């Protein structure tokens, strides 16, 4: 069977998620500030141009995710408390996704009804639930492991969609098997393809960095690309036990590769960021500094767009 997911062309990096990844993976662990000129310089190897970066910064500021502040007459930006909260929530979400959900804890049901006149909100709500790992079991009824409930409640409230939804804790009493229920609610073939795509696109990254002339810059690019490719996967994956999820082998291979990229390229990517930021120019690089950005880090994976 042709794997359409892995055949897809890798999409280009977009400025807004790249900026979020930069803050979540590096800057909040360093000085949580970057001059706008340095931001353009840091992201330049990703093929991003100044106008697109500045426009994305404007949108992030308008959304309350970045705060503008000036240092010694230099305009720059910091992650706001709102963005740091989102990043912290993402850390918890990614950490728990590494361990399969316990079905003994039950399920969470999202039951919603959105008027036809508000179809944009309906689409937004469906996309939000799917991004949290929910699967549809009937019209307007979505299912997920119980541990997703708190994330769902917070994000639905944040999106101003709570007026359309009821959330329930539930146990499954019948009449299909749990395996049948899971496979009717989630497309594990598609999810497995997404994990294979991640490995296909990021598998050569470490070797390519080791062969690069500027390993620090190449490591940064590889880490950002891995973060962007990985970002949606833990949210689409319901995190079911391996025996219920046919994509579990692909999930394990992709997760191991993601961790390997972080472990082997962290110091080089840290060096690239630090040596590009003006506030560190007089200090010299400090690749072993504990807080210098554990890259890739789970906290940069929380979706703040879409």
Characterization of the model:
By secondary structure, the chain is α+β, with helices and mostly antiparallel strands. The protein is built from 13 helices and seven strands. Among the domains are: about 105-170, 2-Layer Sandwich (Alpha-Beta Plaits), CATH 3.30.70; about 185-295. The chain is about 50% helix and about 10% strand. Helix 9 (about 190-200) packs parallel to helix 13 (about 250-275), helix 10 runs antiparallel to helix 11 (about 215-230) and helix 11 crosses helix 13 (about 250-275). It has helices at about 5, 15-25, 35-45, 50-60, 80-95, 120-130, 150-160, 180-185, 190-200, 205-210, 215-230, 235, 250-275; strands at about 35, 65-70, 75-80, 105-110, 135-140, 140-145, 165-170. The longest helix is centred in the last third of the chain and has 29 residues, at about 250-275. The relative contact order is 0.17. The strands form two sheets. A four-stranded antiparallel β-sheet has the order 5-6-4-7, sandwiched between helices. It is globular and about 65 Å long.
């Amino acid at each position: 069977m042709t794997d359409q997911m892995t055949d897809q062309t890798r999409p280009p990096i977009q400025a807004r998620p790249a900026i979020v990844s930069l803050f979540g993976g590096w800057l909040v662990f360093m000085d949580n500030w970057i001059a706008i000129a340095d931001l353009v310089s840091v992201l330049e190897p990703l093929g991003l141009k100044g106008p697109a970066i500045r426009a994305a910064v404007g949108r992030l500021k308008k959304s309350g995710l970045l705060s503008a502040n000036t240092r010694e007459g230099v305009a720059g930006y910091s992650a706001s408390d709102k963005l740091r909260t989102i990043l912290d929530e993402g850390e918890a979400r990614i950490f728990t996704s590494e361990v399969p959900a316990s079905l003994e804890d039950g399920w969470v049901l999202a039951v919603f009804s959105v008027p036809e006149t508000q179809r944009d909100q309906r689409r937004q709500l469906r996309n939000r639930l799917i991004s949290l790992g929910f699967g549809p079991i009937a019209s307007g009824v979505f299912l997920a492991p119980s541990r997703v409930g708190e994330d769902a409640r917070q994000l639905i409230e944040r999106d101003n969609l709570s007026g359309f939804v009821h959330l329930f804790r539930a146990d499954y009493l019948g009449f299909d098997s749990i395996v049948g229920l899971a496979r009717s609610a989630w497309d594990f073939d598609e999810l497995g393809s997404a994990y294979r795509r991640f490995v296909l696109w990021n598998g050569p990254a470490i070797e390519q960095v080791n062969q690069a002339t500027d390993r620090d810059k190449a490591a940064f690019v590889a880490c950002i690309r891995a973060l962007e490719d990985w970002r949606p996967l833990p949210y689409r994956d319901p995190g079911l036990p391996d025996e219920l999820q046919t994509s579990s082998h692909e999930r394990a291979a992709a997760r191991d590769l993601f961790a390997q990229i972080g472990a082997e390229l962290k110091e080089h990517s840290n060096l690239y960021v630090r040596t590009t930021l003006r506030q560190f120019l007089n200090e010299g690089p400090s690749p072993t500094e504990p807080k210098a950005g554990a890259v890739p880090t789970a906290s940069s994976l929380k979706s703040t767009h879409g």
